[in-house]
Write a structure and sequence with these properties.
Blueprint (H helix, E strand, L loop, with lengths): L3 E5 L11 E6 L1 H7 L16 H4 L14 E6 L22 E7 L1 H12 L22 H12 L10 H5 L18 E3 L7 H7 L4 E4 L10 E6 L6 E6 L22 H11 L2 E6 L6 H15 L5 E5 L2 H12 L8 E3 L15 H26 L9 H23 L8 H6 L20 H30 L3 H12 L2 E5 H13 L6 E5 L6 H5 L16 E6 L11 H6 L6 H8 L4 E2 L2 E2 L4 H4 L10 E2 L1 H5 L1 H4 L22 E5 L2 E4 H16 L14 H13 L1
Parallel strand pairs: 6-8, 9-14, 9-15, 10-12, 10-13, 11-12, 13-14, 16-17
Antiparallel strand pairs: 1-2, 2-4, 3-4, 5-7, 7-8, 18-19
Helix pairs in contact: 7-8, 8-9, 10-13, 10-14, 11-13, 22-23
Amino acid sequence: MKLCLHLSYIAQNSFHFDEIFHIKFKIPILVCVALVRQYILAILKVIWELKLIFIFIDQAGLLYVRGCEVEGMLDDNGRIIEEGPEPKPVMKGESRTFRVLLDPNQYHHDMEAAASGSTDVYDTFNILMRRKPKENNFKAVLETIRELMNTTCVVPEFLHDIILGYGDPGAAHYRQMPNQSKTLDFNDTFLSFQHLRDSFPGYDVKVNVPEDQLQPPFKLTFNEEEEKRSILAEPYKGLNRGPYPQNEPKRNSVPFTPTQVEAIRAGTNPGLTMVVGPPGTGKTDVAVQIIANLYHNFPDQRTVIVTHSNQALNQLFEKIMALDIDERHLLRLGHGEEALETEKDFSRYGRVNYVLAKRMELLGKVDKLQKTLDVQGDVGYTCETAGYFFLYQIQSRWEKYLSQVQSDSSATPIDDIALHFPFTKYFADAPKPLFKGQSYAEDFEIAMGCWRHISDIFQQLEEFRAFELLRTGHDRTNYLGVKEAKIIAMTCTHAALKRKDLVRMGFKYDNIIMEEAAQILEIETFIPLLLQTPLDGHNRLKRWIMIGDHHQLPPVIKNMAFQKFSNMEQSLFTRLVRLGVPTVDLDAQGRARPSICSLYNWRYKCLGNLRHVLNTSSYLEANAGFSYDFQLVNVQDFNGVGESSPSPFFYQNLAEAEFVVATFMYMRLIGYPAEKISILTTYNGQKHLIRDVVAAR
């Protein structure tokens, strides 16, 4: 189907990417194109006049190829249609107009050729192809590098010598940092006091409370200056958050090993933390606990999470969602958010919609509180009116209540706490009884928990007040990214694509956690460090936590010259390990059988097995129907043919495919469910061949 191409060229002395190319076409093509607002990478590499440097084969039928970036679809007024919560405008007619960015040099060359009598190539196109930016981030990374060369972006001072490979490799370790935290709140890291004691085998753990009070959570104070290193453990009781079951905090259930606890301690302290995690050693659990501890220890700081792939990012984000972290402080940027195992939307506009819905829910609670106090007026109309209601009606009642029950606690009857409590009617739907009536301290803490519940309502409304003042979805998402979100997750590709936009809107953060750091290109590792403008010439970054395994997959380099001669396959994580930067090596795996772990544990310093791997029968006994835990089988060639390649880089082996499918059929016949069987292969060609063999059976 032929496209009708209309060109609007702005003649200038120089040529820039702000030239505009309009494409109009019928609706059937629109479905195929499915263009969206964001910038996408060039559709094909821009080439020069085909007759000069390239000749297409006759079978292809191609004459010209040109590349462009699609900026977005235009409305009737010629403006880009923004992606957001606002409803899309209703477009008239069957034609649609898109704005695309052309290569100015190529366009100038084509126009000169057309003026001299050659064919105007832009009137001949009848096929439009697109490529999503997440499929290849080369152009985005290249443009970001060019930007960084011309800006005043700086990395934190404690990383200068480390990155350059000079000086002491351990200079950025938390033990060498002048602002090391001597006292840390480990929140719910430890499951019991014995777990705490076992986690620090080289320390003398001291306590200042009776044994029966040694219950988590714990605050730990480290003393490294004595001959015998010691830790002062101080248990504390978490604050009562309210009478409702949903107010109860979520607790960690992972029994961390001593090495994992050391990684968590290092990640919570300032500086550079590098964690080497062999397969099955709980890298993700460690990262999640570090995030939780940073969130509770430093509530004013913001943490950016970066991974190489969307799959790894989603796995990490799903575990974060299960932590004791307020949902309104979570944000997932980039593509791949739709693959999260949740019905909630953690994208930018999804979070805006969540805030708006949460705002209405909280204002409903304000109306409920108003009715129980018999206060007149429309106080639950906006966040502003709710704030005045809290200031003049709620807080005054609470201060009067405190003066009645807190003046002399020893002389105050226990019943007075419940008798004078001003919000009893509001908590009528809470579990009964609201007050136990057994001790003054217990009932007073319940009253304080109820007050914290009410205060939290108005605190959230105060945070959401900005969403009432900001009217456009674009402004609201910017505010969300700059102010509201405390934990922001993205891939390194998204960081490269959106760095300019993030810097422009004033994006700020204090901590970076990189998962799969060994699979990220060295240059891509720098970009997340520079997503914010320096403050007085200094980068505000306080912590950089890199988690990965340099013995597993390296970064993918498709250009063999770059891979072999430029050493681009070496990640920054790997380079720092080779330079001798201190690392925390996780040393206990809980995923594979001990016999299978023995195949690869020689690569690591000291890789053992967790207790459940050594004691559980499912890890010790061979699978039913098989004599061994694992088997290495040499499959002979079939009809003299082994590995073949029907097309370039499309490898297949029929004999191996038949053997694998036969094994699969055997397992199904003896009772293994299909969902418990995985078939892994290294090539797409072999994957398709195995599927064909299965279908033929």
